[in-house]
Write a structure and sequence with these properties.
With 460 residues, the chain is of the alpha/beta class. The protein has 16 helices and 13 strands. The protein has a seven-stranded parallel beta sheet, with helices on both faces. A six-stranded parallel beta sheet has the order 10-9-8-11-12-13, sandwiched between helices. It is globular. The N and C termini lie close together (9 Å). The mean pLDDT is 93. The chain binds uridine-5'-diphosphate-xylopyranose. The site of uridine-5'-diphosphate-xylopyranose (UDX) has 23 residues, from helix 1 and helix 12.
């Protein structure tokens, strides 16, 4: 391993960067000689601070938008440029690393970059796809293509059929990853990309697929894609805050947003298990009307809350300021960004109201924090179903036909999850149980730990 150089490439989304960076740390911990972490040139300019670790290096490739992607750019053009310019600049990066005496021995890529496997194959470099979505969502994609005999026609408006995976409840259209639904605006861009990912994996065991999950968390979905030779190595979350001796680890992660410093003290002043932590990840943009309903739901619930509102997470800075002004510190605190694992491991946290992005979902499992799910798009609907019906560590909030979540429903869900009723007790018991199981998987001798080591041993 000490002579192995891993190149990790990912798109500059927080949900992509976090698991890839944690994988980089695991590789260094396992003795890799060199790990180079690369994202797009514009993505690198967004990084708040680069964690420094021995043997860890940074590099970039271009997606064709070095000044940043504008909301008005056409998604098809973005993906076409990413493939065209990305292929070219990734090849240049591989050649220049080789020229400077650091040839890459293994390439690991994430979602949206399936063409990286083709480049690696052409250059005789083995590669792996790190799936940053839940394996259940990935398995539903796999079923979607099986149902269509591997052929996707963008004029095909059939909704995906309900899918039953042995051992799991039925997945209906409301639980499917949104990009598989015919009326989803991203379907025609994303479905061909998933198809490319799956086709590359079906060819042979190079590339293989590394899953950000563990055997026990998504056993059924892992079984369903067994012919892709999946390797569960997660949860890839930052464990620094779970280890009391390590909570000042400066290499915890890479942030694309500036963190607030004020929340730690505020959390310290709150009783154990009393605070509702609210965050909808790094991408979701909530409407004004929805933000107002959330504020009303949270304030009427009489529990303190810490709410992450990213600057312009609602596309409307002035409005966000107004929301901030309405909240007094006795009741709640609004911050632009935080260290989520630090917050989730704080003893004052009693519930995580969230969108069920896969990283946040895994982080809730790994810290044993019960969930109120308000999924927005992508795999979030699938993950919310798993939270409510499989792990039973939370509830999925009911929304109106137009997708709006009412203040009363927020209050109802929080009472259910944090209150004294039987369901709340069961949820909190389950959350504790899953915390134990997920940690066991990544600790020395656990299934994910062993899977990662077996994968590394096979690398020549
Ligand atoms: C995206 C998709 O939206 C999601 O559906 C998919 O599963 C992964 O990619 P995102 O929306 O950003 O991700 O959500 P999530 O997967 O939860 O990732 C967000 C990450 O940001 C988490 O690791 C979380 O810990 C971190 N975060 C969030 C912070 O560190 N601080 C914050 O204030 C908020």
């Amino acid at each position: 391993m000490e002579n192995k150089h891993f190149l990790l490439i990912c798109m500059p989304g927080q949900g992509h960067i976090n698991p890839m960076f944690q994988l980089g740390k695991c590789l260094i911990h396992a003795g890799a000689g060199r790990v180079t972490f690369a994202t797009t040139a514009h993505g690198l300019t967004q990084v708040e601070a680069f964690p420094s670790l021995e043997n860890l290096h940074y590099a970039s490739f271009s997606d064709g938008f070095d000044d940043g992607i504008k909301p008005t750019n056409d998604p098809h053009r973005i993906m076409a440029e990413l493939k065209r310019v990305g292929s070219q600049t990734l090849t240049e990066l591989l050649l220049s690393l080789s020229k400077e005496g650091n040839p890459v021995s293994y390439l690991i890529y994430t979602l949206l970059l399936p063409w990286a496997a083709d480049i690696a194959r052409d250059m005789s470099i083995p590669s792996a796809f790190l799936c940053i979505l839940s394996t259940t969502a990935f398995a539903l994609c796999y079923c979607f293509f099986e149902e269509r005999d591997g052929v996707y026609d963008s004029n095909d408006n059939r909704p995906p059929s309900s899918i039953e995976m042995p051992g799991l409840p039925l997945f209906t259209s409301k639980d499917m990853p949104s990009f598989l639904l015919p009326n989803d605006p991203h379907a025609s861009t994303l479905i061909p990309i998933f198809q490319h990912h799956i086709q590359a994996l079906e060819k042979d065991s190079n590339p293989c697929v590394l899953l950000n999950t563990s055997d026990c968390v998504e056993e059924e979905a892992i079984r369903l894609i067994s012919n892709l030779n999946p390797i569960p190595i997660g949860p890839l979350v930052s464990y620094a805050f779970l280890d009391e001796n390590n909570s000042t680890d400066s290499s915890c992660g890479i942030d694309l947003f500036e963190k607030s410093a004020e929340y730690s003290q505020w959390l310290n002043s709150k009783p154990e298990g009393s605070v509702v932590y609210v965050s909808f990840g790094s991408l979701a943009v909530l409407q004004r009307n929805q933000m107002e309903k959330i504020l009303l739901g949270l304030t009427s619930n009489c529990r303190p809350f810490l709410w992450v509102i990213r600057p312009s997470g609602s596309n409307d800075r002035e409005f966000e300021e107004k929301i901030r002004d309405k909240v007094n510190e006795e009741v709640g605190l609004i911050v632009p960004w935080c260290s989520q694992m630090e917050v989730l491991t704080h003893e004052s946290i009693g519930c995580f109201m969230m969108h069920c992005g896969w990283n946040s979902t895994l982080e809730s499992l790994a810290t044993g924090v019960p969930v109120v799910g308000f999924p927005q798009f992508s795999d979030q609907t699938t993950n919310a179903k798993m939270v409510e019906e499989v792990w039973r560590t939370g509830v999925r909030a009911r929304v109106n036909e137009d997708g709006t979540l009412e203040a009363e429903e927020i209050a109802r869900c929080l009472d259910m999850v944090m209150g004294g009723g039987q369901r709340g007790e069961e949820i909190r018991r389950n959350a504790k149980k899953w915390k134990g199981l997920t940690l066991e998987a990544v600790m020395e001798g656990g299934s994910s730990y062993n899977n990662l080591n077996a994968f590394l041993e096979k690398i020549e």
